[in-house]
Amino acid sequence: MVVDIGGGTTEVGVISLGGAVYSGSVRVGGDKFDEAIINYIRRNYGMLIGETTAEEIRRPSFGFPGQRSARDGSEGRNLAEGVPRSFTISSNEILEALTDPLNSIVSAVKTALEQTPPELGADIANKGMVLTGGGALLRDLDRLLMEETGLPVWIAEDPLTCVVRGSGMALESMDKSTNIFTTE
Prior knowledge:
Helix content is 46%, strand content 24%. The chain has 184 residues and is an alpha/beta fold. It has a 5-stranded mixed beta sheet with strand order 3-2-1-7-8. Strands 4-5-6 form a 3-stranded antiparallel beta sheet. Helix 1 (30-45) crosses helix 2 (51-58). It is elongated and about 65 Å long.
């Protein structure tokens, strides 16, 4: 099972014997994470921040309850005064902001597990699932998915580029075996 959390979508796939057994997608990814943080800060702090600041806040954040840390020095525009101000937000607050997008990802994973044939489900229970994409870098997201599913969860080596590199390897192997991309 592979869970690819990208900028706009999260793709969940179960692969067996070189083919896709299940694939599903939800429109939740890094963009929705940033949007959730922007809306939370607007609602609770009366501050307006941009997408870049939201991403900077999200990057070191935790995806699992109970972790505590604060993000100092975030800056935005105070909506009441119209002037720039800085504020401090805790990672628990960020986690609260990300609850809905994280729940959507957990639901997509659970749906994939429900739709997977029992024989493959046993393999997934033994080998676990792999997280890829930039969203996999959300700290402790693997712990959250482990807790919610009871399955082992691994973060791919270099999650930002592993999907592209794997696709390239697949194309190279297809090229060698079928000669479809060569001109003779």
